[in-house]
Structure formats: C-alpha cells, structure tokens
Amino acid sequence: MCGLAGVYAFTDTGYKSLDLLPAASASVAHRGPDAKGAFRHGAVGLVHARLSILAPSAAANQPLADATGRYTIIFNGEIFNYTKLREELIGKGCVFTTDSDTEVVLQLYIREGQEFLKKLRGFFVLAIYDTYDSSLFIARDRFGEKPLLYFKDIDKLLFGSELGAMFALGVPRELDYTSLYQYLQLTYVPAPATMLAGVKKLLPGHSLYIKNGKVKISSWYKLPYDARKASQNPLSYTQQQSKLKSLLGKAVTDRMVADVPVGAFLSGGIDSSIVTALAAEQTPGLQTFSVGFPEHPYFDETKYARLVAAKYNTCHTEVMLTANDLGDSLFGMLESISEPFADSSALAVYALSKEVSKSLKVVLSGDGADELFGGYNKHLAEYKTIAGGLEAKTVSQLEPLWKLLPKSRNSFISNKVRQLQRFATGSGLSPQERYWYWATWQHETEALQFIAPRHRAIAANRLYTARKSRLLDCINNHHDLNNVLCADWHLVLANDMLPKVDLMGMANGLEIRSPYLDHRVVKYAFSLPAKSKINGAGQKRILIDTFKDILPVELLTRRKKGFEIPLQDFLATKGQDLVQELLSDYLIKAQGIFSCEEIRLLRKSIADKRGGGTQQTKLWSLLVFQYWWQKYMA
C-alpha cells in the first residue's frame, strides 16, 4: 500500500504547481511510512510514499525507472499473480533488478502497452511516464479498491491518492452543492464527483492518458453482468457450490502472498469467518482481530468471533471499545479523511486498524460478500417485494402503525420497527425509486431542507438528476435481485465500503485485502441466478451452503447484524462537545451553507431522543462535514 500524487503542466502557469509536490507528498505520507521518493522531468512531477509489503528492500522504492531511464512508474497496490507474469517476461528476455510486483507492472506496460491491465489480478492505482514522448498513463483497478482523484484545467492536470493531496496541489476550494446534496442522503459522495467542484474521482476500471496536451479517459474494465444470462445459468446448484469453493479458496491463497505476516479481521459474521477459516488452514497461528462494545451488548459480536477463533486455533485479539475509546479515536479518524465521509462504522475500523497496525501490515477482510450474495436487509426486502405474498402485503398495509411506533438502531425491537416502516414505504415505489429510498439515510426532500434556501436550486438541479440516473443504470426493465446487487456494487461498495477500509487502514499504515473482490470470484458470482443467493430460506444461500461445514453452527442460525457502532450514545456523551462547537447557531449562520432552523430542530430532536433511527446519522453527517469544512475550506 502506498500514497502517490503528480502534476502534468501544460503551460508556464501550470509549471508552478510542480513546486507544490513536496506538500502533496507530505499529505499522503501516512499511506506509506516506510519510504518516500520524487521524480521530475520537464512538465511532469511524481511523488510516492511506500508501505513495504513485497520486496521491502530499498531497491524497490519508488518512483521506479526501467534500466534505460525512459519509463518511470509510481504504484499503489498489490498484484497477486506477479510471480507468474514475471516468469513469462523472463522467458521473453526481460531482466529484472528487483523482486517487486511494481517492476513487473512497468515491464508489462513497456512490452504490451495499455492492454496489459487485463492480465493483472489484484488492486492498484498506477501512473507511468514515458520521457520519449512525454506521455503519462494513469489507471485504476477494476472495482476501485485503491483511490485516485484528479483535476484538470487549461494549465495542468493534478492527481493524487486522496483529496488532501489535491488541496496541497492548490485546486480551487469551491464547494459542489450537488455533491453536498448527495452526501446528506448517502453519507458519502459517489464517484466520479467529489465535494469540490472540478475535482473528480477516476472511476473504477478506467484509465487516463495524456499526450501532446490532450487528455483521454477510457474504460478498460466493465462488470461482466447480464441479468438474462444469470437467470439461465446451466450449472446445477451443487456444481455452483463446487466452483465457488474453488474460486474463493484460490482468492484467499493469492491474498496471503506477502513478505510480511498476514492476519485477518474477524467480525463474527459469515463473510469474515469464511475468509478466516480458509486462511487459517494455510497459516497455523493466524492472527485474527475483532472489535467489541462492552457497554452495548446489542452491538457486540465478539462471542461469535471467539467461536471461529477457537475452532481454528487462531491467535485472537479483541479490541473492546468504550465510549471513551471511541472518543479517543474520534479526531484521528476525522483527521484521516480529506473528503466528508460519514459512515459511522469508520470510527470502529479506524480504532481496530490502529491496534492491528502495532503488529501487522496486512489483514484479510470479508468486504464485498454482501454485495455479491445478497447479505443486506434491503436485499431481503427486495426479494420479498418481488415475490409478493401475504407477509409483504400485511407489512405494507400496516405502514400507518409503523410510523407511529418508536424507531431506533439501538435495540432489536425498535430497529425491527424501523425496518418494517422502510419496507412498507419502499415496497410501494418503482424499482428505481425503491432502490434509492433503501440506499439512502434520508429522503431527498429532507436532505434538501438542511441546505440553505439560496443554495437549494443549485443542489437539486439537472446535474443531480443525471448523476442519480447513472447510479441507477443497473435497475432496468429486466429486474430481479441481481440488478439490485449490481447497483450496490457500483454505488455502495465502490463509494462506501472500499473507501472506508482504504482510508482507515491507510491512516494507520495497514493494508486490508478482501478475497471476495477477486475479479474471478466477482465474475462468477454475477453469473449466478438470484435464487442461488436469496430464497424463502434466507440470504447468502450459496455462500452459506458452500462453506457451512467449516463454520461453527451458531453462526449459521444467528440473525444478520451489520457492522455498526453505538452512535446515539456516543453523540450524547463524548461527541456532545463537538455538536455544540460545530453545529452552533453562530457558526451555521456565519457559514451560510445550511439552514440554521433545520439544524436547530435536529439538535433538539437528538437531545429529546425523538425522531426515529436516522436522526443520529443526519447529525453525524453534519458533524463530519463541519469538521472537514473548518479544516480545509473555512
């Protein structure tokens, strides 16, 4: 894992940005604490911060040039099939000076050009400069596991691993109100937009090529999903399980490759437990880590993690977080995000990563399984809506009752009421609007009310409609559960789950790898019919049936529980000072972005413990934004 940034100047004015590269390098230093380097040639400058995992010798530090000095690369990621690719290149006469995957990537580009990306198994962002024709090639991995942002104007193109690098390189600090509107609904800003007007995220599976002053963006990978083909999969269910077992086993084996020890996050859920079981079979004494909340048993799943740890005799560590512990991690987490990101579970991932990084540089995770196999509550809700029947009809008819009952995410009963109310409302909408309703934390009209009246027309404009429409491309006329999983893959996984583990891990010098994101596993999962994933018996059917023999039986019968923190209690205790400071009437009025009246009503509803299960998330989203604004924009 690493951090990188760069400048390509088009004019004399653009050349001035090259002088800002040392500041950009400092802004991504936390992503790579082991080494740093810089390169400059004419109009181009590159900087790199390295976290050494493969070939840790200084010879593999970056920027890395080929023997002729013509090509120079900066690279962030891991290529799991690099040894095989290296052997093939040696057979063609290539001579290597390091044992790193970075040099393999560079030599492949030299020999095969941009098409070489399709040979890579792993995750990455890379930039390769050719001094001969002054071209710069930038690419991002298939699913967006590693981040890349860029800004282009008439004078230059700037790029970096995080928005903090873009600030350091001097991008205009202009708020994008359409992005703010989406953020208030989702708790994150979906790509390709960012919270800054003009700064964009390179989409997953895309590349950017600069030559002769022209910039070309291309798609080199597209999710191989066809709803009709998936529904007609010719394999029997037993055959489907056999292939899944083989593919996921290989994916885990690949992700154990490192020149440093590899551990695993173990939440106690199905997904991470399967990964841990497969990894422990290859690594005796595998180090595993789970996070718990001793003051809030409803959120604590450590007992299930212990069962898996005991079964596979792992070296298990529990990171138990109290409200004080979360408070201690709060500012570290907020400092680690240079774009507003308000998935509150990031706070726990930050605290866990901080502890894990004391002994490891690499861990495995279970990210991606829910989006592949239908693990979220909204997936079950979608299945029941499509299937119809008495249960779905009854829940919908009782919507007036659900609206009256207290709702919260802090206990089983109140959370169930919240889910029933959302199901009742969503089931009456069109497939696209239902998906958006279930994917967001607050309705469009609610989110818009938080924005100051003079900015609302700018936020909810035709650009917003176009962005939303693109995010809903997967929800088409041939609609089944797989369409929803496709939409989640592009929206939730790429913009919430993957940035969360990248940002929180990298803030602590920790690389987090998920076998479920192996592109062969992903391609296969999207070739399976929806009925293999969810039916009347439950969710993630094929994943559980394939691996149930290697899991403790208690995990197979437990209710699904998302990875969450006791946010309401935290905001009422350790977070209270932050609420008073960042959401005061004085600051809101002076800032001019939000409606002072709406924020005042939100503060009151939280203080009075009213308003349902989403109020705490609304407040948290505003706090995260305000901290970011004060740091970068005020």
TrEMBL record:
Q: Which SUPFAM superfamilies match?
A: Adenine nucleotide alpha hydrolases-like, N-terminal nucleophile aminohydrolases (Ntn hydrolases)
Protein name listed in UniProt:
asparagine synthase (glutamine-hydrolyzing)
Q: Encoded by which gene?
A: asnB
EC?
6.3.5.4
Lineage: superkingdom: Bacteria
Q: Which positions fall inside the Glutamine amidotransferase type-2 domain? A: 2-213
The similarity comment for this entry is: Belongs to the asparagine synthetase family.
Molecular function as annotated in GO: asparagine synthase (glutamine-hydrolyzing) activity
The answer to whether UniProt assigns keyword Lyase to this entry is no
In its UniProt entry, the species of origin is given as Pontibacter aydingkolensis
Catalytic activity of the protein = L-aspartate + L-glutamine + ATP + H2O = L-asparagine + L-glutamate + AMP + diphosphate + H(+)
Ordered alphabetically, the record's keywords are: ATP-binding, Glutamine amidotransferase, Ligase, Nucleotide-binding
The metabolic or biological pathway listed in the UniProt record of this protein is: Amino-acid biosynthesis; L-asparagine biosynthesis; L-asparagine from L-aspartate (L-Gln route): step 1/1
PROSITE patterns membership = GATASE_TYPE_2 (PS51278)
